[in-house]
Design brief:
About 25% of the residues lie in helices and about 25% in strands. It is α/β, with parallel strands linked by helices and about 325 residues long. Helix 6 (about 240-245) links the parallel strand 11 and strand 12. The longest helix is centred in the middle third of the chain and has 18 residues, at about 140-160. Bound molecules: NADP nicotinamide-adenine-dinucleotide phosphate.
């Protein structure tokens, strides 16, 4: 099968298209023929080994050591990287109960990686090694692959906020993969949403349902802050501004500030299943900035690594 192989940490050019052996599913795995994947911010972080935050560790060095132990010391232990996918089940292991051959599925590969390929094997049950759900019929594979990463991050980091009707929610970095999903989810949960983005993304963020939009590059933006019940930093610690520093103080008495770099992300199939209902209700739409074929993944990584994509960058595979 065709796959993109990453033989060392480095710039986008370390990614190479190769012919590799097609995997065979173990008893607890399904074999998926991948139709689409996406280049996520995390893929660039892993390919270059540039860790942004502490991910809950007290010191960055501790987090980096842990990541090298898990992902690989000098190069990725799993040379085919890639975290999200949408495709069709081609074979199932003997113990598989939730899925059957022919099911169209989408999901996250987690620490098993492997989505930059024509086929991947994933465990049926959710774990740090990934999670899977049936793809809604209303989305094609490109859309499903694009919504998985931001969807799981947004759902995970918003679940503790317990957003209620009328809550005031601010999404910092509303134009990225997580931000575009978080704005729509917060609206779905009944919040009054303020999205923070640059001027070039204001129309996009409004079109996703944001009631108010603040341009973080505007000198006067700090004066536009109100008090919020919940603030989500949807772009992580590497992306900041004067407004971001200030907005940490713009919380109502019981308000909460959460960063996507702040904790231990759980890969729950339940998040995807919840998405399915919201997608089918028409309240959650993927935002796709660009689409590249698998053969042009180096160009896609160069683009994503600049840090300014709008929503998601999709890779078509089969
Ligand atoms: N906790 C965990 O386990 C975990 C796991 C995976 C990922 N993460 C974190 O989650 C982040 C997810 O990011 P993502 O993929 O959703 O983002 P993304 O799509 O890569 O973000 C791109 C967006 O960021 C905006 N942006 C750039 N600089 C900004 C700034 N200074 N202030 C506000 N917005 C800015 C850009 O718009 P403009 O340029 O127009 O502003 C662009 O639309 C990752 O970077 C990683 O840090 C955490």
């Amino acid at each position: 099968m065709k796959a993109i192989v990453c033989t060392k940490y480095g710039p986008p050019e370390v990614l190479q298209l190769k012919e590799v052996e097609k995997p065979t599913p173990k008893n607890n795995e399904v074999l998926i023929k991948i139709h689409a994947t996406a280049v996520t911010a995390s893929d660039c972080i892993i390919r270059g080994f540039n860790m942004p935050g502490n991910f809950g560790f007290p010191k960055k060095q501790m987090m980096e050591l842990m990541m090298r132990l898990v992902v690989g010391f000098k190069k990725p232990r799993k040379p085919i990287i890639g975290l999200v996918l949408s495709g069709e089940i081609e074979a199932v292991g003997k113990k598989i109960k939730r899925f059957k051959i022919g099911d169209e599925v989408y999901g996250f590969t987690g620490f098993s990686f492997g989505a930059y390929a024509e086929y991947v094997c994933i465990r049926e049950n959710e774990s740090k090694q990934g999670c899977l759900a049936i793809k809604p019929d209303t989305m094609n594979h490109e859309e499903a692959a694009s919504i998985t990463y931001g969807g799981i991050l947004a759902m995970h980091f918003m679940k503790d906020a317990n957003i209620q009707n009328g809550h005031k929610v601010l999404i910092y970095g509303a134009s990225g993969a997580t931000g575009t999903t978080a704005v729509q989810l917060a609206k779905h949960f009944g919040a009054e949403v303020t999205g923070v983005c640059s001027s070039s993304n204001m129309e996009l963020v409004k079109s996703l349902g944001s009631d108010k939009v603040i341009d973080y590059t505007d000198e006067d933006s700090i004066n536009k802050l109100e008090l919020y019940d919940f603030i989500l930093d949807a772009v992580g610690e590497n992306k900041t501004s004067k407004l971001k520093i200030q907005c940490k103080k713009a919380l109502d008495r019981n308000g909460k500030y959460i960063s996507v770099d702040g904790g231990d992300l759980k890969l729950r199939a339940e998040y995807l299943i919840q998405h399915n209902g919201i997608i089918e209700a028409g309240h959650l739409k993927p935002v796709i900035d660009r689409t590249y074929p698998l053969e042009q993944i180096v160009e896609a990584h160069r683009y994503v690594a600049k840090g300014h994509k709008k929503g998601n960058v999709v890779i078509t595979v089969n």
